[in-house]
Amino acid sequence: MGAPRIVSPTYSTNPSAIKQRRYIKNHPKKWRKIHYKSNKKWAKNNREVYLKCKRDDYRKKTAEVWEFFGNKCVKCGFNDPDCFELDHINGEGHTEKNSRGSKKYATMDAKYKLVKTNPVLAKTKFQLLCANCNKKKQRQLHEYWNGK
Ligand SMILES: [Zn+2]
C-alpha cells in the first residue's frame, strides 16, 4: 500500500456536488452559460462584495505583474507602481488582436495570464516603463503616429 490519499476538504463528496462535477465534465459549454448567468445574478445582488473582490483581485494581479517585471522603470528606475505601464518592446501592441477583435493584452487579466503561463514570452514581449518613458518612446519611435 502506498501513502494514504489526501482528500482536499474543499473537494466535497456530497451527492449534489458529485452530480454537478459530472455535469460540468459532460457539458462544459452549457455549464459555462449557467455559471455565467448565476455569477451575474450574484454580482448584481452583492454589488459591494463583488466590487471589493474585483478590486482586490486586480490589485493582487497588478502587484504580481509589476513584481515579475522588476518593480521599476527599465529606462529611468522610477519606482512608483501607480505610474507603471507595460510597454511592448517592439511596439506591436496595436496590431495584436484577441478573438473578440480588441487589443490582445489590453487588460491586466490578459497580462497576468501571460506572465503566469508563458514567462519567457512575457519577458521578450514586454518591459516595464514609467508613464513618462513610455510616452517618450512612443513619440520618438512614432509608434502611434497621428501626425503630431
Ligand atoms: Zn521611466
Summarize the structure.
The chain has 148 residues and is mainly alpha-helical.
Main-sheet strand order equals 1-2
Mean pLDDT: 87
The shape, in one word, is elongated
| Count of helical stretches | 6
Distance between the termini: 74 Å
Q: What is the chain-wise order of helices and strands? A: HHHEHHEH
The count of β-strands is 2
Structurally, the number of domains stands at: 1
Radius of gyration: 21 Å
- Please estimate the helix content: 40-55%
**Strand coverage percent:** 5-15%
Please identify the structural class as seen in this structure. Answer: mainly alpha
What does this structure look like?
The chain has six helices and two strands. It is mainly α and 148 residues long. It has one domain. Helix 1 packs across helix 2. The longest helix has 22 residues, at 47-68. The protein is elongated. Zinc ion binds next to strand 2 and helix 6.
What is the fold's blueprint, element by element?
Elements: H1 15-26, H2 28-45, H3 47-68, E1 84-88, H4 108-117, H5 119-125, E2 126-130, H6 131-141
Antiparallel strand pairs: 1-2
Helix pairs in contact: 1-2, 2-3, 3-4, 4-5
The protein binds zinc ion.
Zinc ion is lined by residues 73, 75-76, 78, 129-130, 132-133.
